[in-house]
Write a structure and sequence with these properties.
This protein is of the alpha/beta class. The protein contains twelve helices and 15 strands. Helix 5 packs parallel to helix 6.
Length: 363
């Protein structure tokens, strides 16, 4: 504690290039910061999206990774909410909990802006970096997490403290995608019993939406993807119908709202980041009261469109970030539910790799 640590990390040197395994120096935490040992990491599509150069905020060189399970190694001055040895999940959506933060004090949102500007600029809240390569050059932080390293430094307000007996190689999934999908259903849309639901895109987020909709008591869950190999997993989690847009005549939204249902679904979710799919999701939602939620992150510069008449006739278009969960308050509750056995997540894990150097294999 209090000294720099040398450790292995996978550094993204440039877009579209494999990560390079390097020995880096991780500085001790400053005031309001926490240094953690990264035990487990899950790969999120956002990491790959940034590595592909599609993220307008992407900065290089950087250390990617933002779905992790960690153990606190040391804390900076003034840190009170976590202590050395605590188990934490880093959260890219922080929660400062200050009485002066209108976002943290509002039940309507989880979008605490306390460190938004510095996090977007790839630096810690004081404007400096904690990572340096072997030549002493700085390396940018990513999403306030940078977990593809054996050690990383986080803002205290980004650390969700969880029970120590939770398996970090599983609950790390609550750091982004799985929590996002569940929260889109439970928090953002508040899907009711007997609702009908359509889910576009059957990656981890889409499957989490299906799981969340099933828990919420949805009576019909339509899974939509151009890859039919994903349908079996969707059905296991609760999908009642599966549709490949390539197999239907005309736009898939007309097939869902017209053939599969009389007027559309009560709730639809885009989990693709494709703006055309976002439009299809809105337009298959129910006349008079349908709600469509955008979860997928579109590439920079893309815009959504539909005819205003779609909204005039009673549809609502909304979006969600981290499923509306307030990170430090809500992530520990998700972990507790997993530990009790009423929120299984093992089915999201398809491959396991050992060691930070295997990150390229995972990608």
């Amino acid at each position: 504690a209090g000294k720099p640590i040398q450790c292995k990390a996978m550094v993204a040197r440039a877009p579209k290039q494999p990560l390079t395994e390097e020995t880096i120096t991780v500085d001790p935490p400053k005031a309001g910061e926490v240094r953690v040992k990264v035990i487990a990491n899950a790969l999120c599509h956002t990491d790959v999206y940034t590595l592909d150069g599609q993220d307008p905020e992407g900065l290089f060189p950087c250390i990617l990774g933002h779905e992790a399970g960690c153990i606190v190694e040391s804390v900076g001055e003034g840190v009170t909410s976590v202590a050395v040895g605590d188990h934490v999940i880093p959260c890219y959506t922080p929660q400062c909990c200050e009485t002066s933060c209108i976002f943290c004090q509002s039940p309507k949102t989880n979008l605490c802006p306390k460190i938004r500007s510095t996090q977007g600029n790839g630096v810690m809240p004081d404007g400096t970096k904690r990572f340096h390569d072997k030549d002493g050059n700085d390396i940018y932080h990513f999403m306030g997490c940078s977990t593809m390293s054996e050690y990383t430094v986080l803002a205290e307000i980004s650390c969700a403290k969880i029970v120590p007996d939770a398996p970090l190689d599983k609950v790390c999934l609550f750091g982004c995608g799985v929590a996002t999908g569940l929260g889109a259903v439970w928090n953002t849309c508040k899907v009711e019993v007997n609702s009908t639901v359509a889910v576009f895109g059957l990656g981890a987020v889409g499957l989490a939406v299906i799981q969340g909709a099933k828990v919420a008591g949805a009576s019909k869950i339509i899974a939509v993807d151009v890859n039919p190999a994903k349908f079996e997993g969707a059905k296991k989690l609760g999908a009642t119908d599966c549709v490949n847009p390539k197999d239907v005549e005309g736009p898939v939204q007309k097939h869902i709202a017209g053939t599969m249902t009389p007027w559309g679904v009560d709730y639809s979710f885009d989990c693709t980041g494709n703006v055309e799919v976002m439009r299809a999701a809105l337009e298959c939602s129910h006349r008079g009261w349908g709600t469509s939620c955008v979860i997928g992150v579109a590439a920079s510069g893309h815009e959504i469109s539909t005819r205003p008449f779609q909204l005039v006739t009673g549809r609502t278009w909304k979006g969600t970030a981290f499923g509306g969960f307030k990170s430090r308050t809500d992530v520990p509750v998700l972990v507790d539910r997993f530990m009790k056995g009423d929120l299984p997540i093992d089915h999201f894990i398809t491959h396991t790799f050992d060691g930070v150097d295997k990150t390229n294999d995972a990608i």
